Amino acid sequence: MSDDPSVAPTRLLREHPALPVVVLCFGGLVASLTQTLVIPIQSELPQLLHTSGADAAWVVTITLLAGAVAMPTAGRLADLYGKQRVLVISAGLLLVASVVCALSDSLAPMLVGRALQGLAMGFIPVGISLMREITPPHLTGTAIAAMSATLGVGGAIGLPLSAFVAQTWNWHALFWVAAALAALVVASAWFLVPHVADAAPGRFDMLGAVGLAVGLVGFLVGVSKATDWGWGDPRTLGAMGAGLLVLVVWGRYQMRTREPLVDLRTTARLPVLMTNLAAVAIGFGMMAQAIVVPQLLQIPAVTGYGLGQTILAAGLWMAPSGLMMLVFAPVSARLMVLLGAKRTLMIGAAVLGSGYLVGFFLMGSSWELMLACIIASAGVGIGYAAMPTLILDAVPLTEAASAVGVNALMRSVGTTLAAAVMATVLTSSTEVVGGFPFPTESAFKWCFALGALAAFAGVAITAFVPGRRDAVREPDAEVAAANA
After folding, report:
1. Sign of CA dihedral 311, 312, 313, 317
2. How many Å apart are CA 337 and CA 335, to the nearest integer?
3. What is the percent of the chain with per-residue pLDDT over 90, rounded to a whole number?
């Protein structure tokens, strides 16, 4: 038998063309669910890790920061050295990271493990960009849509899953389960995803990667800590300002170097630029419900508007919305064939905004909030699926993974902004019930309104994406053009 790992997958691909798609989507789900893995035990982390509440908050923050840095970096590495290799390495990072976290009893090793889990998020944009190379034409649109949806689905599924595991066993079991899933992803990506010859000549811009990491971390630390420090605090303004300054210098360097980490000239093309701006708005809209609705479900009923659900029950009420993102992936693929990716993205953002409007007017029971989340998540599923198609249509094939990685980064910026803004709104208007402060009902309504505003802003931004005369075409023609 040949030692070439591509032989078996190539044969399997001919016989079962959907198998690599299932593997990649499963890997995306596992990578993204780690983002919400510790949410059910977040309040207990100071005691579990023998640290302060402020330091324990970094267990969540560091994963988001590492994921933001990893997406464009992994994309560039995939363009240079091959996408299947980077997928296996990303899954391997997730395996190692989960084991480190499972063995941790103090803050320092936990932060190392959580940072490595964030770096594994590069799996998703690389997997999206690989879909066009390994799927038959009739499956490409649905495959890209499904893989893109895993960014939201994994996080939504992770909440009830981690709550169940934590309540049934202990918090270490969360990471052992993640390690087992990651091991399965490593094996599947190695044996069942074909290793196509897609590496392009060039060098990796290490200085550009360091500059991007420093700039992003500085800016996003300022944003994510703004609620604790205050938006006008010198630490917040200093971190955000320093991060932006580094990113400006980094941008000038990228424009002058021959082989940049991110080709800013390509990124500045109007279709790519407007799609990335829309990604910030839609990412904001997606994250807002993930923050607001669980709190509203869990606030004691004695407040008059809280629904008094347990953490596990709240996760189960939200689980259907996560699955809805995956259900609407093939719907999005069909809409792209009929209407084009631009109109599909506008429809997705509009449905997302409509979900928030439903939440604004219907927040009196658990099923009403579930309905609002289902509608909003359907919009996310449609919109998230359309964005990478718009990007892939506008960039050279040799820059596909890098460009999709930047788009995923912009979604991450939107989710980070949403987390900070929603937390600020919810803590700025509180009332004391039973000796404990809770956000007021009006604060939740403001959050729903801001989520709707962000989503409809995404509709308006997408309207400025230049139309294409051949935007509405059959999948066969689309894939042939991409592979030409």
Report:
1. positive
2. 5
3. 30
Q: pTM value?
A: 0.79
Give yes or no for a contact between 234 and 53, defined as CB atoms under 8 angstroms apart.
no
φ, ψ of residue 204 in degrees (nearest 5): -85, 130
Main-chain phi, psi angles of 432, to 5 degrees: -90, 125
Distance separating alpha carbons of residues 294 and 312, to the nearest angstrom: 10
Place of tokens 């919400």: 36
Distance CA 471, CA 484 (A): 17
User: What's the pLDDT at 470?
Assistant: 39
Pull the structure tokens for residue 292.
């607001």
Q: What is the mean pLDDT of residues 444-455?
A: 93
SS3 content of the chain, % helix, strand, coil (to 5): 80, 0, 15
Secondary structure of residue 195 in the 3-state scheme = coil
User: Which residue type, as a one-letter code, is found at position 90?
Assistant: S
Q: What does the pLDDT read at residue 199? A: 67
Interval 271-293 mean pLDDT: 87
Place of tokens 């439903």: 358
Q: Residue 368: which residues within 8 A CB-CB, separation 6 or more? A: 358, 359, 362
Neighbours of 151 (CB within 10 A): 27
Q: Which residues of 155-174 are buried (b: 16+ CB within 10 A; e: fewer)?
A: bbbbbbbbbebbeeeebbeb
Left if phi > 0, otherwise alpha if psi is -120 to 50, otherwise beta: which for 152?
Answer: alpha
pLDDT of residue 211: 92
User: DSSP letters of 12-45?
Assistant: HHHH-TTHHHHHHHHHHHHHHHGGGTTGGGGGGH
- By the 10 Å C-beta count (0-12 exposed, 13-18 middle, 19+ buried), 178 is classed as buried
CA distances from 357 to 280, 394, 395, 402, 442 (A): 20, 33, 35, 35, 14
Q: Do residues 417 and 223 touch, judged by C-beta distance below 8 A?
A: yes
Question: What are the tokens at 287?
Answer: 């994250």
Residues comprising the chain, all counted: 484
pLDDT for 477 equals: 39
In terms of pLDDT, which residue wins out, 482 or 258? 258
pLDDT at 253 over 70: yes
Residue ranges of alpha helices (H) inside 193-310 are 206-224, 226-229, 234-256, 264-267, 270-298
Q: How far apart are CA 127 and CA 143, in angstroms?
A: 10
CA–CA separation, 139 vs 131, rounded Å? 9
Per residue in 59-115, pLDDT (tens digit) is 888 888 888 888 888 888 888 888 889 999 999 999 999 999 999 999 999 999 999
Q: Hey, is 436 helix, strand or coil?
A: strand
Query: Nearest to residue 296, comparing CAs of 443, 449, 450, 425?
Result: 443
Alpha-carbon gap, residue 449 to 413, rounded angstroms: 20
Tokens coding 158: 């992770």
